[in-house]
Structures are given as structure tokens and as C-alpha cells.
Hints:
Blueprint: H1 2-15, H2 21-31, H3 38-44, H4 51-58, H5 64-78, H6 84-100
Amino acid sequence: MINKNITTTLEALVIYEPTTLADKIYRFLVGNALVRSSAEYSRWMGRSRTYHNTLRQQHRSPSPEAWTNLASALGLLMERPLQRPTKAVLAAFLADIPHEVPQ
Length: 103
């Protein structure tokens, strides 16, 4: 009985694992209390409050302009007094964003 519950819980966790860079960034920001909601994150991308949720539902990537806006917001965040490991993760995200923007 316990093993079945654990397996079901693990399967549910896999379903919600972030799969896109935008989702990974969002989850990191929320998990570190740097952003409060998907609506706020959407605003960081310079879009309407429903933008991020719409992207997730439609399995789409942010527009090039949204990526640029997000990179700018993350750059400003890097200027805040944050712990070194947090800044390292943000720097890694900033390095990954150009790979997401279509050429």
C-alpha cells in the first residue's frame, strides 16, 4: 500500500517538473521569493498578466522580445544584494536565454 502511494506521488511530481527554460526560471524565482506570481513574472517579460500561463498551457516559448525583457529584469535582479549561489543560478539562466531566442 505504501509503495503504491509513493509511486503515484512520484508520477505526479514528474508531470509538474518544469520542462522549459522559462518555466525553470519562473519556478526558481518563486521558490526563492523573488517573484510572487505568474502574473508578476509575465510583467517581467513585458507582457500581460496571463502571458506565462498561456505559454505553459499552449506548450510555447516566449517571444524574442519577451526573452529580452526577462533577461533585462534578471540583470537588474543581479544588482540586488543576493546570496552568491542565487546569483550563480541567475547568471546561468542569463547565459542560457540567448540559446532560446530564434535567430
